[in-house]
# Entry
Amino acid sequence: MNKAFCEFFAGIGLVREGLVASGWSCIYANDINPKKQELYEKRFGSEGHFHLDDVWNSAGVLSRVPEPPFLATASFPCIDLSLAGHWRGFEGDHSSTFFGFTKVLDGMGGGRPKVVMLENVTGFITSKGGKDFESAALSLAELGYWVDAFVLDAKYFVPQSRPRVFVIGVHESFQTPLMVRRTENEWFSGGWTRNIERGKKLRPPNLRELMERVELPTGWAAVNIQPPIAEAVNVAELIDLDDDQAWWDEAAVTKHHDMMSDRHRKVVDEMLASKKQFTGTIYRRKREGKTRAEVRFDGLAGCLRTPKGGSARQIVIAIDEGHLRIRWMSPREYARLQGADDFPLVDNTIQNLHGFGDAVCVPVIRWIDENVLTPLFNSYSKLNGHAGQPGAGVATTNDSGCETPEHAA
Ligand SMILES: C[S@@+](CC[C@H](N)C(=O)[O-])C[C@H]1O[C@@H](n2cnc3c(N)ncnc32)[C@H](O)[C@@H]1O
# Structure
């Protein structure tokens, strides 16, 4: 089997961006949004297998998947799993597209991917008191997957607080020592319990509670992972401070200074008085009916989101020798905060911000690839008598992850 994957809810393609480095080849990508497609194809080319369609159109989707992939990824919409979507959960039209994905998996029959990976906000664990997570895990299990899950925060790799839940499903037809299955004799052999215990910083109590309580027709499994070593730089290093940036005029700066709480304004005023240099971010938030400009100088930016009007958009604050400058964070800075520094942008700022605000963080995907996905692929290759990667049976890819013409022919 080739080291090939299908990317569902592909957006601008940052899952692919994270996977191509280790030789994964994307054979199919699906998303419904033409503006995301434009960004995706700017990076991966129009021959990059992007299929613009509703995931619920499973017949159309299946007709475009050229061969059974080893891996399928799905970072399905998060809005209904958050306050912004009124916690509608799987009753909402957006997040319930997850079941469009499982319908496609179902339609793949014997060609179902050996491994699936879901990605979503941490509200996925808590939505409807855990019921939505439970029904997602059950759907995967009914399709033959053993299920593991963990929470990984982008802040280990980039200066952005962005915790996300990842669910890994490994098909029952692929039995590997890397994905330790929970057994009825856990109290005795305890391999699953040991992996859960070792990785407990990545599996918070509410997630562990679900994994212990919910019964699946397959079962829960656990990979052996521990938190990454933090390597993120300070957000100040990703911010452009030159005068060519679109810094706001004095009236807008004063307005935001006035919008700060007394405590935050005091911090800013002390920084101004010190005549030193500080760079941080501002996020506008409603607090007790008032819009507040909340500053942070802890070296991290808050979680990037899709911009709605002026809210939910990150703002840059720079203090230099008593001088205060403020502006919107630029699309290039959004790209850097997602670990996609050189990703090509389009001319439309909001389209760029929307694309990156919704996306996964590239080094997070790379870490999961190095620690989970590629080891699983190599284990499968070994069990089936092939060399792992690179080597026999592995698709040759160029640096954008497209199959080379010789291979595709
Ligand atoms: C959280 S974003 C995924 C972002 C992506 N992982 C990235 O890195 O850019 C969810 C995506 O689901 C897409 N989507 C929403 N409804 C869909 C549907 N019915 N069919 C296919 N895609 C859909 C949205 O357009 C959006 O790009």
Observations:
- The pocket of S-adenosylmethionine is lined by residues 9-12, 14-15, 30-33, 36, 54-56, 75, 77-78, 97, 100, 358-360 (CB under 6 Å).
- The chain has two domains: 4-232+357-408, 241-329.
- The radius of gyration is 22 Å.
- The CA atoms of residues 315 and 384 lie 52 Å apart.
